[in-house]
Amino acid sequence: MTGPRIAVALDGAGWHPAAWREPGARPGELLTAGYWTDVVREAEAGKLDFVTLEDSLALQTVNYLDRPGERDGIVQGRLDAVLIAARVAPLTSHIGLVPTAVVTHTEPFHLSKAIATLDYVSTGRAGVRVQVAGRAEDNRHFGRREFGEFRLEDSAEPGRPSPLRDLFDEAADYVEVLRRLWDSWEDDAEIRDVATGRFVDREKLHYIDFEGRWFSVKGPSITPRPPQGQPPVTALAHAAVPYRLAARSADVVYVTPSDRAQAASIVAEVRDEQELAGRGAETLHVFGDVVVFLGETEQAAADRKARLDELSGEEYSSDAHVFTGTPAGLADLLLDWQGAGLSGFRLRPGAVPHDLTAITRGLVPELRGRGAFRTEYEASTLRGLLGLARPANRYAAV
Amino acid sequence: MTRKQIHLAAHFPGVNNTTVWSDPAAGSHIEFSSFVKLAQTAERAKFDFFFLAEGLRLREQNGEIYDLDVVGRPDTFTVLSALAAVTERLGLAGTINSTFNEPFEVARQFASLDHLSAGRAAWNVVTSWDAFTGENFRRGGFLPQDQRYERAETFLRTAWELFDSWHGDEIAADAGSGVFLRDSSAGAFAHHDAHFDIEGRFPVPRSPQGRPVIIQAGDSEEGREFAASTADAIFSRYGTLEAGQAFYSDVKGRLTKYGRTPEQLVILPAATFVLGDTDADAHERAHVIRRQQVSGQTAIKFLEQLWNTDLSAYDPDGPLPATDPVLGDHTIARGRASVRMYRDPLATAKEWRQLAEAKNLSIRELMIEVTARQTFIGSATTVADAIDELVQADASDGFILVPHVTPGGLDEFADTVVPLLQERGSFRSEYTGTTLRDHLGLS
To answer: Which residue on chain A is closest to B207 by alpha carbon?
Structure first.
């Protein structure tokens, strides 16, 4: 496949705050298994690489630093993304499932076994998107930590200590623990040797003995090494501090360029950080995030977005580039930006189902017509779809 | 006369020597297909629920990872959510430790599971004061044993406050008017005490059951009070007539002071079973299974837990050590849910010596004699009779069955015993409700 890899980011009824009011939206079903099964199956019917599932420990906001729960007229309430992914896994067969997990307040031991188990129940299609949570509202749900002021402008300066940088450094430690726990069982640790009475070979189970600034974890995991060995770790990054986290820890980083030139400069920055982290030889996918409002014509797409904006009372804006137009126009943009070094895209449908089906039934055929998207899944695991080899176990004796 | 209805649950065999991995019929303990198989068998048999235990640190003995039993488990929440996709009515119960989690995250996960299973979630609340397990977590093993029920109860009540922070009618989702929430304060909570100091907005709207079914397993005085005040179901260890009746009347008798009725707490002892064409067949199979469960190596490991010292040089087919158990801190085995603790090791050793001499038993034979427990042994008719009699006599409200082989260990029970119980009118032939609370008669 020469074209870009395509993922879709699922969040409630879509990314526009008024998406739930669109015809065809199912706002009363956002807390049901049926809704999530249907949307993930639609993405799989389009043979997309994977879906991400947004999550948060707080009620939805329009902008990250808004106070949760204070905005009227938007979807409020959501389910745990890892559990949604697990619920959908047995009912799908090829698409990757990448739930969001907040790593600031949860235990790496728990998340490690949850993602390993998602990999078992999906037979090799699990990934995870790690996210930090720095708002006071999130902290108060746990009541055991206090941070300094979380200022988005700190995210541009990896060289300067800040509460925000601490959060990302902690997240890097967290991912290190996830990965060590996934490797803490060698693949052939289970031996079932009747003669010696041993179910496992304890020489192939390893204490990880992680000691860091924020936590220490002994290991080994209680869950054997998952089918993919290491499920792909992904992260969204907008600036230098999170680029550094992604370069140290991730297999896929989602970035938010506003045009082709910015895409090129972000890719260069990520690659520099990757070299700095000593991972220059490894595959790190850089996916561009794009919010999409699609229509049969440019005018139809623009009218639809205008209608949504009117319902919410303000023009929609996003951290990511907002594309309004036809599937063919979007295909042009994606192939153009791919030329700037992006290896894939994570598309955020403005409204579901409309913009999701416009991706699977409009964009996908458009890309296929240009020889730039798969017609069949070429692999049965998420790593396989991403062209990532199954990694060797760091603890296995060579 | 209507017969008292039996409640049955299926336990996925866990990491202990009850689970026989050396049998040719034993399959994977980690592949999802094994969980699907057992859960679908339980649902076919109209069981109340499927139950999954939890472990958070691999067991050790003599300072080494214990390697003789099945080891390795999936994450409880994740596997239960996936099972919700391949079952329709079966309750989905999981153990979740309250020591190494926070009420906000556990409540969020259980409320999510209850939504995703359309009302089938249950939570077996356990606590840990174990610093050994705590080494895998940020909080460590900080909890003094005398505070474990206090924290567990506070944890549970805090989780309830979060479940109850939504009443169920807040979501309007009215596209025309643009009103998503009728009540803009939905989910607001604040809980401040010595254990938890939290406030905010709970992000999961009210789930089909409101709260998951709460299960507990404590047997101490505090544990029984905790269960009587808060649990919907209790796992007991008393599966015989007299002990069962004593536990049953004791715990149910405690309900009144909490304003509850006997029907509001379902008592389910754990039980194993061995079936055969005849009672004699079953006893023969039971003997074979006990030898599978207690290999020579396992017998030595069990003996070490009493002797509190390394006995690896001993022959399991030979006599007991001539030396006495080592007294002092008992540290040989770590990470077991119930490490075999012996109050008076010297007296127990003396008792075992006498038993071994009287019956001329080797170490392995003695260990089979003193540790192996099989609750129901016999033909399908014998086992159905025994289960029905115990329930009708108020020794329990039913049983949580622990097959000794994964994943097919429940098939024979489902095919032979369940129809007999149904014929008697003691067990449902079809589910009459959709939620686990419906199945347990709690709603």
So the answer is: A31
